[in-house]
Design a protein that fits this description.
This protein is of the alpha/beta class. It has two domains: about 140 residues, Rossmann fold, CATH 3.40.50; about 280 residues, L-fucose Isomerase, Chain A, domain 2. It contains 14 helices and 18 strands. Strands 10-11-16-15-14-17 form a six-stranded antiparallel beta barrel. About 50% of the residues are buried.
């Protein structure tokens, strides 16, 4: 889960029950401290006037915050949010509180009207990255959206080689990626990985993982050793270069020049909570990182490989790169010589059943958009090589296929177990990314 830093202020006006607002604000601060992986910086005093707002600004500007929460403790001056956002340009949540019981026929907080005022002011000033929330507790989905935005903004993605041969749709225009997400790409040649030193401790670790988790009857001792060595190289390469994720041109050079395709090694290393995208898919790596930012475990970058219109299911498949920790309990995980004249050592297993969330950051030639889908993983026998999950959707699979095809979405997407859709919807509104869904 991506740690983020969030500033908090509480607006009030003395013509309303600001003492009650102060008590609520104290309670909220205590509540916020229970949320994991967030550094909170709360300006303790209520903000009544512009002068108070500038004191809050001075406090928050020292904290390098990723986002700002403006609580409408009571109705308040419209200047306050505008002043804060003028000086602190980050996504903002406008938080309205439920109205308290009336006291002597007078409305006590009028908090929702304060949110309405702030939202209208911001919107008409051309500031659209606000999120409105109403209730006694903070919107954790908005925090999730901030985690996604912060993860991409601070990510350092290594691109090893280029995209796979002919996969032009996976190309990334680096300036647009930086402009829209803030992400930096570091380029490396394939030889940097081929020749990277082997950490013996890591090699031993991955050898033990292979022996303890896979049927290796189809591969020889040399292939098994190469998988362990490549796993150690990838692990060290990402650690030593401080990479948040890696995208690798995994064919055709790996098998031809290194002697083994990286699929099985990627399965092993990704199970250690690293993010590695195959076929040089930088946007696929972004998708996986966004899932990881929310605390989702070990994303799987898959192909929509089979769509059965008659039986209404799809197969989320790839040639043996899924983290082995996602395996179901019924089938055996194996290392297989799947392609490249016996050099294509891949992991092979069926993924566990369960509800999954699907995401794809995808560049349309001008802007980024987000494919967002929910699916239901079901059990199946181990009938294929590679790693895969059979899924159904809440809509006909034909609708899913048409959505992907007629929006020109790339053929990879990230899959994780659990429901992680709402934070993406909020992040898309903040960042002005178009959502593609069924």
């Amino acid at each position: 889960m991506k740690e983020v830093t969030v500033g908090v202020v509480c607006f009030a006006r003395k013509t309303f029950d600001y003492n009650a607002a102060r008590e609520i604000y104290i309670s909220i601060q205590s509540q916020l401290n229970n949320i994991k992986a967030v550094r909170w910086h709360c300006y303790n005093e209520l903000v009544f006037e512009v002068e108070d707002a500038h004191k809050a600004i001075a406090f928050l500007k020292k904290k390098d915050i990723d986002a700002l929460v403006c609580i409408s403790g009571t109705f308040h001056l419209g200047h306050l949010a505008l002043e804060l956002i003028k000086h602190i340009s980050v996504p903002v949540m406008l938080w309205g509180l439920p109205e308290l019981p009336y006291d002597g026929g007078k409305i006590r907080l009028n908090s929702i009207c304060g949110v309405n005022l702030d939202a209208s002011n911001l919107y008409k000033a051309g500031i659209r990255n606000y999120h409105a929330h109403f209730g006694n507790t903070i919107d954790t989905d908005w925090i999730g959206a901030i985690r996604i935005i912060s993860m991409l903004k601070n990510a350092k993605i290594g691109l090893v080689g280029y995209h796979a041969h002919g996969f032009f749709n996976l190309d990334t225009w680096h300036p647009s990626l930086y402009a829209q997400c803030g992400t930096m790409i570091e380029h490396y040649e394939l030889s940097h990985v081929f020749n990277y030193p082997v950490n013996q401790q890591y090699k031993n670790q991955y050898t033990d993982i292979i022996e303890g988790n896979f049927d290796t009857g189809e591969i020889n001792t040399s292939q098994k050793q190469k998988v362990a060595e490549l796993s150690a190289r990838l692990h060290s390469f990402m650690e030593d270069n401080n990479l948040t994720a890696l995208a690798i041109r995994c064919w055709p050079e790996f098998a031809a020049e290194f002697g083994i395709a990286p699929c099985a090694a990627m399965s092993l290393v990704q199970a250690q909570n690293f993010v590695i995208a195959c076929e040089g898919d930088v946007d696929g790596a972004l998708s996986m990182l966004a899932h990881k930012a929310l605390g989702a475990q070990t994303p799987f970058l898959f192909d929509f490989s089979q769509v059965n219109l008659e039986e209404n299911f799809a197969l989320l498949w790839h040639c043996g790169v899924a983290p082995f920790t996602l395996k179901d309990t019924a089938s055996t995980a194996s290392l297989d010589t799947y392609f490249a004249a016996g050099k294509g050592v891949t992991a092979g297993f069926v993924l566990k059943p369960g509800d999954v969330s699907i995401c794809r950051f995808d560049f349309d030639g001008s802007n980024y958009r987000l494919l967002l889908l929910k699916a239901h993983g079901v059990t199946m026998d181990k009938l294929l090589k590679g790693t895969y999950l059979k899924v159904t959707f809440d809509v006909p699979v034909r609708n899913v296929l048409d959505t992907i095809i007629y929006n020109g979405i790339a053929h990879h997407a990230s899959m994780v177990y659990g429901d992680f859709i709402k934070p993406f919807e909020i992040a898309a509104r903040i960042q002005n990314w178009r959502i593609v869904t069924c």
